[in-house]
Specification:
Helix content of chain B: 55-70%
Number of helices of chain A: 1
CATH architecture of chain A: Roll
Number of strands of chain B: 0
Number of strands of chain A: 3
Radius of gyration of chain B: 17 Å
Structural class of chain B: mainly alpha
Order of helices and strands of chain A: EEHE
CATH topology of chain A: Ubiquitin-like (UB roll)
Helix content of chain A: 10-25%
Largest sheet of chain A: 3 strands, antiparallel
Strand content of chain A: 25-35%
CATH class of chain A: Alpha Beta
Distance between the termini of chain A: 29 Å
Structural class of chain A: alpha+beta
Largest interface: A-B, 17 and 18 residues
Oligomer: heterodimer
Shape of chain A: flat
């Protein structure tokens, strides 16, 4: 699915958060932005409905996939 | 309030959400500031048009996204610098209450900074910068006086320098003529917020549909 964007170049960021120090970080969503600064502002604005003790974003391009659904484990 | 007007009109869905979130943040900040003032013994001001001390940049709704961006990237930064100066001052109520506000404003600054890179409108940025400088006030006046007493951790020169540093804008307009400066409303040009917005802020529309006692 394509998105109409005003920015020349954007990248997708995955958003991770957790409610307590004891639980692991989990993916809560994603944002699309032209740079890290705006991605942080968007992540905080979009996913701040819970009382997270920690939130972080990761550029999707930085994630190294080992295998995808349906692919046999190498 | 002006941020909220853009919550379904920004260029991207993410920016819509950010506009709504920043608007909500700022309503919360107003409540904290009014609460702190009350605790410090400041009397309430009557809710009438002439008592609104908004900068002229907020008098009318913005008709262009670049106007939003300049407000977010310049004016919001100026207000945050003043909050920082209060949080770093010697009034305990403000020192303890305003810290969370600064944490939230960090994200407003990121939003404004990034969008300024993309949609910098020199005219809007300069107008917002000028309004911010007028709002901070002239050298040797109340802000410097409060700085001298330790209530503010920064004086006028420092506030101006930090703002220009953050905005990265070179001032292009003529020097400010302080003769007509209104010390209470912290502005030079007369006028005020538009009637429609004032009605919303004062809850007049709600009162019309929900008579007293209903």
């Amino acid at each position: 699915m394509g998105f109409v964007r005003v920015h020349d170049e954007v990248q997708e960021y995955e958003v991770f958060a957790r409610k307590t120090r004891l639980e692991p970080l989990r993916q809560v969503g994603a944002v699309v932005a032209p740079d890290d600064e705006l991605a942080m502002a968007y992540a905080r604005a979009t996913y701040d409905e819970e009382r997270w003790v920690e939130m972080m974003i990761v550029p999707k391009a930085a994630v190294i996939q080992l295998w995808a659904p349906g692919e046999a484990e190498a | 309030m002006r941020y909220a007007e853009w919550c379904i009109a920004a260029p991207t869905l993410e920016a819509d959400i950010a506009a709504a979130a920043m608007g909500l943040d700022d309503i919360g900040h107003s409540r904290v500031l009014y609460g702190s003032l009350r605790e410090l013994g400041t009397p309430d001001v009557p809710d009438e048009p002439s008592s609104y001390a908004n900068v002229p940049y907020l008098d009318r709704p913005w008709t262009d996204w670049t106007a939003f961006v300049a407000a977010n990237g310049v004016l919001d930064n100026a207000f945050t610098l003043m909050i920082e100066a209060l949080a770093g001052g010697n009034v305990e109520v403000l020192r303890s209450r305003l810290k969370k506000m600064l944490q939230e404003e960090r994200y407003h600054a990121m939003h404004g900074h990034s969008w300024l890179r993309e949609s910098r409108s020199a005219a809007a940025v300069e107008q917002a910068r000028r309004d911010a400088m007028v709002w901070i006030g002239p050298e040797g006046d109340d802000v410097d006086d409060l700085h001298g007493k330790g209530i503010l951790s920064m004086g006028v020169r420092e506030l101006r320098r930090r703002l220009d540093e953050q905005v990265g804008a070179a001032p292009t307009s003529s020097p400010i003529d302080w003769k007509a400066w209104d010390t209470t409303r912290r502005r030079i040009s007369p006028g005020g917020i538009d009637e429609l917005t004032l009605g919303v802020l004062q809850g007049l529309a709600e009162k019309r549909y929900m008579p007293a006692g209903a």
